[in-house]
Amino acid sequence: MRYSFTDEQQQFREFVRKFMEANSPATEVRRLMETDQGYDPEVWNNLSESLGLAGIHIPEAYGGQGFGPVELCIAVEEMGRSLLCGPYFGSSVLATTAILNAGSEDDKQRLLPDLAAGKKLAALALAESSGEWDAASIALTATESGTDYILNGAKNYVIDAHCADFIVVVARLAGTEGDAGIGFFTVEGDAAGLVKRSLQTIDETRKLSALEFEGVTAKPLGEVGNAAAALQQSLVLSYIVLANEMIGGAQMLFESSLEYAKLRVQFGRTIGSFQSMKHKMADLLLEVESAKSTVYYAAEAAAEGSADLNAVASLAKACASDTFAHVAAETIQIHGGVGFTWENDTHLYFKRAKSSEVLLGGAELHRELFMQQSI
Amino acid sequence: MTEITEESIREEVKAWLTDNWDDNLSLVEWRGKLADSGWGVPAWPKEWFGKNLTAGLVNAVQEEIRNFGAIGTATAGVRMLAAATILEHGTEAHKEKYLRGILTGEDNWCQLFSEPGSGSDLAGLTTRADFKDDQWIINGQKVWTTSAHHAEYGLLLTRTDWDVPKHRGMTFFVIEIKQPGVEVRPLRQMNGHASFNEVFMTDAVVAKDMMLGNLNQGWAVAMTTLAHERRGADGMRPQGSSDKGDGSIFAELAEEVKTVQAPYKWYPQRAGRADLLIERAKATGAIENPVVRQEIAKALTINKANQWTSRRAREAQMLGRPQGPEGSLGKLAASNLARACSKAHGVITGADAMLKSDDGAMDGLIAEILLSVPAHSIAGGTDEIQRNIISERVLGMPKEPRTDIDGAFRDVPRNVAK
């Protein structure tokens, strides 16, 4: 159903939430975000092996759990709620989804079991200096060389590339443009000619890298030259998963604002007794619940492969971008001065919100994509 | 006694309809027969035109009547609110006098609650009822009264004790509208329509046995009326179809539907008409403008989100899960949608948005959207009141301290004169 979760899904959510509360409290988030590695390998192993989350939407035939987009989105929403520091979004969501959509049967047999078990990490290198996540913006070239390809060019904003065992690269055959000539490739994380540089990010819980490819040898992933559709399919699911992650963060901030408004006393009253605050909270509740409706609907649309999938994926991303950023800004405002301090956790979410707001395209872009689907 | 099942009820209704339905009866004659049979309002008590049936069986009965092609008892206007209030608080004499006329449609009703000085704060009303010469004398003004111009009776909330706290000095009456002391004037709205009335009462008279509930306990009675209003028992929604047959009774019904719906012709425009946005943008060419597309997308996003949020609430209810916050947000969500649509229609229409009626876009329909949307966030509980309700009942935030509920009502500040 598009409008409610099953009992099993609700139990799964509670299960993931408990794990996140135990393993990703704010103290851990703060500790890990300041490390180069950016995550705790032991937590990652537990998350992958005990919970099976790394392979949640990988079919059982490739060593995964065989669940669908709805369960994936539930897990990611809970990770967003706890700001989990880990290569989940980069490896288990972006790279894994790309392999699922673009890879040949052999590719999937070869790559997915290790990803599902969390034994290997991957990253998806798509956007370049233009900062756009689409086929037409890709300039990095692939040139055939025997059974391999040689990659030349640069990628930017690559999530979790710093710890990836291999990189899934989207490139184009030299001389092509637009959706034509697009191919997926895999490159070893330590391949010759690949230079990784960690970027300084406002959201320190999510590591980004810039990658340069100078004559890097790559293996083709699926059919080269005709992969724009697989890219589009992967992007659409990624919008939805990211939107769900953002709503997890927005809900957490909403709860923290409400709690603070009920505790903080000024002028002899809790600030939550002032109508200015009550009306703000009522509006935020409506905004968060509305955004939830869109991201849950989109997750189910992905599970069913609905005809309106592309439209609702963009609708959900636009809605989540606006909502998370707005709730984050208001949460700082509601906390007053203390909300602007490093010690208060709000800024961790604010930074995630501002970063995710533009990641995979901002609200304006997605409203435009939604309109193109709706006209 | 045979057991009552849905199947047996359906058979019984069908048999009764087969014996009694006649589309050449007058509407009132037919509805009288139906009311007397108990099939018109089967949820009501057996003694009063009903059969004490549960909601599920009532639905089955109504479905049978619809499928048969027959007409149900009257529901238009506030009559069902009046009936619910009378059934709960009225005396046997009240029920005897009013209920049948409500069901046959012979008598129309109106609700005399809101006043110019008491909008969101209904309990601040100042229409007074004074007991003189063995009857009640009413003086004051009511406003936003639907159907008062063709009503026989009004549900009237008055102040009878000014020396006690506001909620404890009100009394509820049934007043006859067609009397010299009651003047009904249409109230013209900013969009040009006049869907409501102002009702002026100057030494109007109410017989002493026309009190519903007890003296100074009218607030509780009004709460009954309002609870039924919130449950949607008012007949403001489109009535049953009137195109099922050729008999004279259907012509009469069509006329009734037209009269009832006339004041609400602009309600779809008040909600913003999200359905027209893309079609209009294509027609004007504004669809090519990326700024306009953003505004349309924003409105359509709210529209989708609102639909899906109410579906979430409904499904949670169907699954027997505890009511989440999504169930209380509809009214505020709809206001946001109306505003977003109004903005989008404005940018789609451009300079023509200055024009109305025949000169306006879509023969004035777009102008009607722009001029009707402001009502959405006021009617039926303002956005501000909705936000109070959400923050207090859903989020558990404290009420504002109040200065108007403990002392005598006469000392509570009222509107400041200019």
Characteristics:
heterodimer, A: 375 residues, alpha+beta, Butyryl-Coa Dehydrogenase, subunit A, domain 1, Butyryl-CoA Dehydrogenase, subunit A, domain 2, Butyryl-CoA Dehydrogenase, subunit A, domain 3, five-stranded mixed β-barrel, two-stranded antiparallel sheet, B: 418 residues, four-stranded mixed beta sheet, four-stranded antiparallel beta sheet, 8 strands, 42% helix, 13% strand
What does this structure look like?
With 375 residues, chain A is an alpha+beta fold. Chain A folds into 3 domains: 7-116, Acyl-CoA dehydrogenase/oxidase, N-terminal domain (Butyryl-Coa Dehydrogenase, subunit A, domain 1, Orthogonal Bundle); 122-225, Butyryl-CoA Dehydrogenase, subunit A, domain 2; 230-374, Butyryl-CoA Dehydrogenase, subunit A, domain 3 (Up-down Bundle). Helix content of chain A is 52%, strand content 17%. Chain A has 11 helices and 9 strands. In chain A, the strands form 2 sheets. Chain A has a 5-stranded mixed barrel. In chain A, strand 4 and strand 5 (182-188) form a beta hairpin. In chain A, helix 7 (228-263) packs antiparallel against helix 10 (346-358). The radius of gyration of chain A is 21 Å and the shape is globular. The model of chain A has no long low-confidence stretch (mean pLDDT 97). With 418 residues, chain B is α+β, with helices and mostly antiparallel strands. Chain B has 3 domains: 8-76 and 237-262, no CATH class; 92-230, Butyryl-CoA Dehydrogenase, subunit A, domain 2; 266-394, Butyryl-CoA Dehydrogenase, subunit A, domain 3 (Up-down Bundle), CATH 1.20.140.10. Chain B contains 13 helices and 8 strands. In chain B, the strands form 2 sheets. Chain B has a 4-stranded mixed sheet. In chain B, a hairpin with an 8-residue loop joins strand 6 and strand 7 (196-207). The longest helix of chain B is centred in the last third of the chain and has 29 residues, at 290-318. Residues 236-242 of chain B have low confidence and may be disordered.
